[in-house]
Design brief:
single chain, about 140 residues
Length: about 140
Amino acid sequence: MGIRKLKPTTPGQRHKIIGAFDKITASTPEKSLVVGKRKSGGRNNTGKMTMRYIGGGHKQKFRLIDFKRMKDGVPATVKSIEYDPNRSSRIALLYYADGAKAYILAPDGLTPGQTVISGENVAPEVGNALPLSKIPVVL
């Protein structure tokens, strides 16, 4: 993910660094992996304000991220790198060989069209997922 450093036009921007949008390849999310996100605005079930200073912001949809990567041995192709409004990292849309779709957190160096796989006996490359005991020690 590219990084953009702002020029300090105000004191709050003096050391501000934000992510760039140059690596994003899709503008709309996959509909089957998106759910609505409810905001309470600091109110409880009766409508009474219980937490102050909460509210506002832009409307967001929640992307379902596959953190476990339990499809061992099934290769997946990276379809696109997308923006996620709920986190500071980018997400990658995977199309598995068996027809399933999933979002993962996109590591640096992951590009659309690349093949990733998870399991115990896979190569330790960018995007692949393997158990901690199988990751080689690099000195």
